[in-house]
Each structure stands twice: as C-alpha cells, then as structure tokens.
Design brief:
single chain, Thiol Ester Dehydrase, Chain A, 4 helices, 13 strands, 19% helix
C-alpha cells in the first residue's frame, strides 16, 4: 500500500492538483514488502534496494502524467538510476512490518510549451523514521517517432553476434540460488557463468517464464526489475566465488546505473562484471566495488556500478 502527498508550491497546484514546469516536492509512504516472491526471497536479513527503487520509478511515472501533464503516448526512459544506503542498521529486517517514507523532489527539464521532456528525481529514504539512504533518477520522455527510430536502430545492433569467452566455466550450468543471494531457483536469472583470463565474469541474463515477477510489467522490452536483479546476482556471484564473501549475509549498499538503450526480450542479453580493489566501510566491513555492463550484440545497454557489503 502506497500513499502519495503533493506539496505544491504554486496556487495552481493547490487548486487544480497540477503544477507548472517548476520544481515540486512529494512525500511517499509505504510498507516494505514482507512476502514478495522476489524481494523477500533469500536470507531476508535486509530490506532490498529493489523496493525504494521501484517506489521512485512508479512515483515519477505517475507524477509526470498526473501533475506535469506529460502525454501518455510519450514513452518514458530512465536514463540513470542510483540507490544507496547511508546507514546500514535501519535496513535490517525485524519480526514485524517496516515503514518506508521517501521525500521526493522532481525538477522538470527541457520544457517545451509548458510540458517537460525530462525529470530530475532526487529523494531521501527513511525506514521506521530513520534517514538511511538516497534514491535518484533521470527520466526522459521521448516523442513516439524518436522512440520508434531508437528501438529500430537498437534492434539492428543487438542482432549482431556477441563475442565473448567460450571456455573457462566458473559454474557448471545455472548457479545455485544460494550463490546469487536467493532461495528459490526460479528467481535465478543467470545462465552459465564464464570467467575470462582477466578475471571478468561474463554471463547471460535469462528469466524463467513461470516467475510472474518478471512478466507483470507491461513494457515490450526487458523490464527494469530484470536488469536490476541480473546485475545484483552477477555482483554477488563474483563476490562470493572469487573474493570469499559469504553471499547469504551480503547486501548491495549502492546500485548506480546509466542506460544507453532498451534490452530486447527476444535477443541474448549478457552481463560483464569486474571487481575493483577490496575496500572497507566506515565500520570496517569488507566492501567490494563491482563494475558491470549489459550487452546485446555489439550494443551496450547499460553500465552499472555497485558495492557488495559483507555483514558480520
């Protein structure tokens, strides 16, 4: 259950429930999921970064049409998304439900005839009243013809042959769910991982059609939740298999993505992951930065930076 409050700064916003093309503030209140088939699958020690990212995504899309008058026929593209934990302890799960609150600031960009063609989204995350994270995004609204041309060019590049390693299997077949931080094998979205001589993990991102989490989206491209989950699992697999992390007690403390295009659902999608030097969080916990890229054919779909944090 979600509750959205608009804090309008113009008389128009108060009277009509809409806004002019100026910065606006909103507050979102929600209960973090307790029985979600994906977000609560695994050791379930921490609330998943998926949740505030999804709240921000849905809020920005709703607000863009309801308050900023963006036409429904303009496809929305998230060009960048970042979610980060600033305090770890509030993210720990307790025996009861947890309350999520987000203060969201939306700033219109590239305004034409009073309608923005983009939104800059900034927010702070509170769990049970404690400020413990941030979630930001950059949203772009494409004209229908521009969107169609972009998809056609992207599909042509994605059809080209993927050139990756053909030997050096890290795992014989699909990784076990526990190796990627999940408990239910149906939630594993990785194929057979390969390891290059440069210690780069290369793995195809696949989904099981039996899992309704991945088919509930209405888009005709690979849903954002699949891209988030694929890079999450690849980062955890790399940390566990090559750097000695105990995946069951790990959490992603940061996920920062820049998108260059759409992933086509009927074409192979590959993830490349490399780890940087091991770091330490302020409290001494091991923290492994991981850089990931998503590819279809000769085209890069996205670049992601994340940090795998080992809990004690």
């Amino acid at each position: 259950m979600h509750h959205l409050v608009h804090r309008p700064n113009t008389p128009e916003g108060v009277v009509l429930g809409t806004t002019g093309p100026t910065t606006q503030q909103f507050a979102v209140s929600a209960l973090l999921p307790e029985r979600h088939s994906l977000f609560n699958d695994g050791a379930d020690l921490f609330h998943d970064l998926h949740s505030p990212a999804e709240v921000l995504r849905r809020t920005a899309l709703f607000v863009s049409h309801r308050y900023f008058r963006v036409p429904q026929e303009r496809p929305a593209v998230f060009a960048a998304t970042e979610v980060a934990m600033t305090e770890l302890e509030p993210w720990r799960r307790t025996s009861g439900p947890a309350h999520l609150a987000m203060d969201i600031t939306l700033t219109p960009a590239d305004v034409v005839s009073g309608v923005p063609r983009g939104l800059e989204c900034e927010s702070t995350i509170h769990i049970e009243g404690v400020r413990c994270g941030t979630a930001n995004a950059r949203l772009v609204f494409l004209m229908p013809r521009v969107y169609q041309n972009h998809r056609e060019r992207g599909r042509a590049m994605s059809r080209s042959e993927f050139t990756g390693p053909t030997e050096g299997e890290l795992w014989a077949g699909t990784p076990a769910a526990r190796a990627v931080g999940r408990a239910d094998q149906v939630n594993v979205v990785l194929g057979t991982p390969l390891l290059t001589v440069e210690s780069e993990l290369v793995v195809e991102i696949v989904t099981d059609p039996r899992n309704q989490v991945f088919t509930e989206a209405t888009t005709d491209h690979v849903p954002p939740v699949v891209l988030v989950e694929g890079t999450r699992q690849a980062a955890l697999l790399l940390a566990g298999e090559l750097h000695g992390f105990t995946v069951g007690s790990c959490v992603l403390s940061r996920w920062n993505a820049r998108f260059q295009g759409f992933a086509e659902p009927d074409l192979p999608l590959y993830c490349r992951a490399t780890a940087a030097e091991l770091e330490r969080a302020a409290d001494g916990r091991p923290a492994l930065p991981v850089a990931l890229t998503l590819h279809q054919g000769s085209r890069q779909i996205a670049a992601v930076d994340t940090v795998v944090l080992q809990d004690y």
